[in-house]
């Protein structure tokens, strides 16, 4: 019985001894004897059973926080603020187990949350100093730690705010400047997911969308593009980005559906129509017919339809006129090549059916070239009267004139053949009429050739 009593008495003495050490650490802290206070609280928490005492961890957080704020002591314990933060986390975790909610975090409440607020301001102040000194890596570390304190304040309901927008922004900027884009994306992402809006914030949404696109993460790229469009609906960036994303990461069908959606949302924008037409034609046409998709004709027909709609909205758009002229010209060339492939086999003459087919193909070629001429001529009319041209416009003018020369030369060749046929029939009147037509067309060839040769000098 005496042995049991003695054991209990020793336990009480031990408990009182540890309590006295904790009180001594508090007393030393109050007297600003921080080095001694640190030694004392470390000894208290070196005892295993004391590690469940919330008051001990709270005291440690205050002591280490004070050391971090003391310019003469902080260099001796480089991570004093970090140690204080971890001690505060442990204190809050232990307090959260208190059954009576009213008794939780009493010490912190009595101190008006000063230890946490001091940690937050301390990290923020250091972060700002590093940032202003262009030391972005250490700035990022301290902004990140400042946010860790903020998240602690927020998660425990000590403050009602869920996002420290300014600090989060600078954490992202610092990480980006420190060449840590993955970290920057985390903090920029918090701002975007909160749909934060402010001066220059639109660039954050753009940065995130582009960052994930370059990471081949189409899901997140689309997510942040959608958020950006929701917060900044009038910025034209989103439409172009979504089209680029569909072009790079999706199928052609995805891209064309996106164009249809964009055009529906922007009915007055002729550029979306034009770009859609170009995409359709480039998908459907290849100089090598064997490389074209099965629905090539449908795609090209759709391209013509869309390009005509473009010109309905902007008749003086040289680029659209050039594309339509090129489409019809290429179709004429293909028909002409088909005609050329119908040749005699050895000494055998062409059959009547073959001759008939060639006549039909010549007529179809001429029809396509005639369809191309008004658009190519319009390009000439629109651009030749201007002064110095941009490179794209100069190329369009050269190409239009070049095709007009070829088309007219083909017409001359066709008329020369008709002339020979008329001469064989001794059709004097017919020959005379054909000569007049040839002369007129040759004048066009000369006119367009002279213009072509003078483009660089004139423009």
UniProtKB/TrEMBL annotation:
For this UniProt record, the keywords arranged alphabetically read as follows: Coiled coil, Signal
Signal peptide from the UniProt entry: 1-21
Q: Does the keyword Mitochondrion apply?
A: no
Q: Does the keyword Glycoprotein apply?
A: no
Top-level taxon: Bacteria
Taking the record's annotation, the residue ranges forming a coiled coil are 405-458
Name used for this protein in its record? Tetratricopeptide repeat protein
Which species is the source of this protein?
A: Niastella vici
């Amino acid at each position: 019985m005496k042995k049991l009593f003695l054991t209990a008495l020793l336990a009480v003495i031990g408990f009182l001894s540890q309590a006295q050490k904790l009180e001594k650490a508090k007393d030393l802290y109050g007297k600003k004897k921080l080095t001694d206070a640190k030694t004392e609280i470390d000894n208290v928490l070196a005892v295993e059973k004391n590690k469940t005492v919330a008051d001990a961890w709270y005291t440690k957080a205050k002591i280490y926080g004070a050391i971090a704020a003391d310019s003469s002591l902080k260099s001796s314990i480089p991570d004093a603020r970090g140690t204080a933060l971890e001690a505060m986390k442990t204190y809050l975790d232990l307090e959260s187990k208190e059954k009576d909610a009213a008794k939780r975090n009493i010490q912190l409440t009595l101190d008006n949350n000063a230890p946490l607020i001091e940690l937050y301001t301390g990290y923020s102040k250091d972060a700002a100093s590093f940032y202003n000194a262009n030391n972005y890596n250490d700035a990022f570390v301290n902004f990140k730690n400042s946010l860790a304190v903020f998240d602690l304040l927020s998660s425990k309901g000590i403050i009602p705010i869920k996002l420290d927008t300014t600090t989060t922004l600078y954490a992202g900027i610092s990480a980006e400047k420190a060449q840590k884009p993955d970290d920057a994306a985390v903090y920029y992402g918090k701002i975007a997911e909160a749909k934060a809006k402010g001066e220059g914030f639109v660039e954050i949404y753009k940065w995130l969308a582009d960052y994930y696109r370059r990471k081949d993460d189409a899901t997140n790229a689309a997510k942040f593009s959608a958020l950006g469009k929701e917060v900044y609906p009038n910025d034209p960036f989103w439409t172009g980005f979504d089209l680029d994303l569909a072009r790079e990461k999706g199928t052609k069908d995805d891209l064309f559906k996106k164009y249809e959606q964009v055009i529906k949302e922007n009915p007055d924008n002729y550029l979306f129509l034009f770009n859609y037409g170009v995409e359709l034609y480039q998908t459907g046409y290849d100089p090598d017919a064997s490389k074209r998709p099965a629905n090539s004709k449908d795609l090209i027909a759709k391209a013509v339809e869309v390009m005509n709609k473009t010109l309905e909205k902007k008749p003086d758009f040289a680029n659209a006129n050039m594309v339509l002229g090129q489409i019809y010209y290429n179709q004429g060339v293909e028909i002409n090549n088909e005609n050329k492939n119908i040749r005699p086999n050895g000494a055998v003459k062409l059959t009547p059916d073959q001759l008939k087919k060639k006549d039909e193909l010549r007529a179809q070629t001429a029809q396509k070239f005639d369809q191309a001429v008004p658009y190519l001529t319009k390009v000439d009319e629109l651009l030749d009267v201007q002064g110095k041209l941009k490179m794209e416009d100069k190329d369009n003018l050269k190409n239009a004139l070049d095709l007009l020369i070829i088309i007219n030369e083909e017409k001359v060749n066709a008329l020369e053949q008709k002339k020979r046929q008329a001469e064989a029939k001794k059709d004097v009147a017919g020959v005379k009429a054909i000569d007049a037509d040839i002369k007129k067309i040759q004048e066009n060839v000369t006119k367009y050739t002279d213009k072509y040769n003078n483009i660089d000098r004139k423009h």
